[in-house]
Each structure stands twice: as C-alpha cells, then as structure tokens.
Design goal:
Blueprint: E1 20-24, H1 30-37, E2 41-47, H2 50-60, E3 64-67, H3 70-73, E4 88-91, E5 111-112, E6 121-122, H4 126-137, E7 141-147, H5 156-168, E8 171-179, E9 187-188, E10 190-198, H6 199-202, E11 206-208, E12 214-216, H7 229-232, H8 248-257, H9 262-270, E13 279-281, E14 287-288, E15 296-298, E16 303-304, H10 307-313, H11 327-332, H12 337-350
Parallel strand pairs: 1-2, 1-4, 2-3, 4-7, 9-14, 13-15
Antiparallel strand pairs: 5-6, 7-10, 8-10, 11-12, 15-16
Helix pairs in contact: 1-12, 4-5, 8-9
Amino acid sequence: MKLNYNWKLADGYPPLTRGKVFSCFACGGGSTMGYKLAGFDVIGCNEIDPRMMEAYKANHGPKFSYLEDIRIFKNRTDLPEELYALDILDGSPPCSSFSVAGAREDGWGVEKKFREGQTSQILDTLFFDFVDLAKKLQPKVVVAENVKGLLMGEAREYYKKISFAFEDAGYEIQDFLLNAADMGVPQKRERVFYIGIRKDLAEPFMEQANLFYRKPKINLEFNETRIKFKDIMDTNASERVKINESIIPAYEYCMAEKTSDFAKYYEETTGKRKYFNTILIFLESVVSTIKGDCTHVIEGTMAYMNDTEIKRAGSFPGDYNFLNNKVDYLVGMSVPPLMMARIANEIWEQWLSKINTPCTPKTNLL
C-alpha cells in the first residue's frame, strides 16, 4: 500500500469497498481518514464536542452523525440497521487520565470535561462504555486506541479490566504498543491499540500465545524509514511565532546540552520542573508527540512549529478544513491518518479479506 504523509483530500480516496466502519470519539476524523485511505467506507461517527463535529462533517460528510455523550449513544434504541452490520467499530476514548504527562491516579474517578460546552465525564470509564457499544453492535472487528501510559504503573489494572471486558463482549483481543514514526508518520507517537475479532469468526486466526492462553494472530510490525523534522520543515515560512524572552535561557541550555527537555533547565536552576511540555526539535530528529497545545521549538530559530509543519507531522491533509479549531489542538487530539491507514490495511489483508461471511446484521440486542 503506497501512502505518503504529505497529501490532500482533493487527491481523493481509493474505492471504499473493503467494508463499513463507524468511529466513536471521532474528533476531527484522523482515524476516519486512515480507514478511507485503506479503502474502508466510514459511514458515521459519535463525538461529544460540537466544534469537532462541525469540522468532521465539513471534511467527511458522514451518513450518520451523533453529537452526544457515548453514554447516551450506546443506549439508543433507534440506531439504523447498518450499525448492526459493521466490519469495524473504531474508538479512541479520551486518554488524559492515563497519560504520563497528566494527573494519572489523582485524576481517576473524577468528573471533568475537556472544553466548554461538553458534558462532564469520568474519563477513565469511557473505555468501558465503548466496549458496551461493541457488545451491542457486534461488529466483526473492534479497534480501540489509547496512550502508552495505560501500560504503566497502577493503570495496568485498567488495562487488564479492558481486556476482560472485550472478552465478555464476545471478542478475542490482541493488543499492541505502536509508534507512528515506524509507520511513515513524521512524529514519534506511541499508542496502545486493542484489536479484536468477534469470537465466531476468530478460530482460523487463533494461535497459542503460551501454555494457557490463545490470541488472534495479526502481524503489526512496521519498519518504514523514519522521517526527520528537516524533511517536513516549511522552508517557505516567512514568519514564525517567537518564544517568550523569559524562556530563552532554557532554549540556550537545551541547545548547548543537546537535550530536547526545557524542564531540565528549570530543574537544575530552580529545583522545580516546569515548561515540561515545551520541547526542542532537532532538525535531524523525528518530531516528538504533537499535543493539544503545540510548544515545539525549532533548533536554531527560537520559534515554534507552524501549522503547515504540524499538519505534516500529524499526516493530516494539507487542505483539511479546521474551521474555528486550532490546528495543534485538533491534530494533537487525533490519531494520525497514516498510522490508522497502515493498521486498517493489515486488518483487511490478514483478517477481513479472508472472512467470507457477508456484512449482514447480527441479532439486534436492544
């Protein structure tokens, strides 16, 4: 499959003949674009943020769209039959509760909301609402994405509970820690992916993992050449947003010490870590994870990445219509399209293309 991080929506997609997908926690449609690049038809989405939904509709024109809390959506009794005949149910539950950069344990079980206009939610339980939806709709395959922090410390208990919940919902699950940088995306973005196949379809793909455990086999090893920042740098940029004078000493420290971590300067000079989200990008390195508020400073410039570079680092199309959303926020909250395209292509090649059962509705479990 020939794909490139630098693309446009105007280039079009391949024929969308590989199956039907529905996306939850859809944001601006990063994963949706990935599925389409891999030849899947994404027929709809669920999203709680009105501004994100506006951007999703503007760029993807979904057949079905549900602007509401997934806790409401999963209990609907009026869902169309097509949603009970999905090839893939996709979802990226909000992950700040498990992020190594967040409050982690101190934030678990606490109601919060990302932005004005959203419903307050306990973010660490939304994964289980997604599993409930999978149990109800019974797609052939489920794909769920989350942060690397889900594998660390006490969060591993959530990780195990999620696996058991998928099993109870009727799926054989395999999980992976994947890095977008190995998949042709110009960004070091590590994410956990749960990928499961419905139990009645799983047997041909099962293998013995150890003496007691079997799992569905799917190879998700990617070895694309890593793309350095110098290769995506906007060389036509006439102006850039300069860093504040107050952090110039930290910038100079990072340049001298060849470190990307601004917080190290403050730790050494004040004993406290701050500006830990401000990162120095070296021209010969891959960009670190784009977050909701991009504070990536470019080596030798004392200035931040611009929107063109952020889109390239996120493998977002150059002509994506962000409407009133900040580019760094929407890209930072999204699965890189090229990352999902690689995964979706392997799901097709190794699983779905070998399943001869037609895409017909399972029993309606309402």
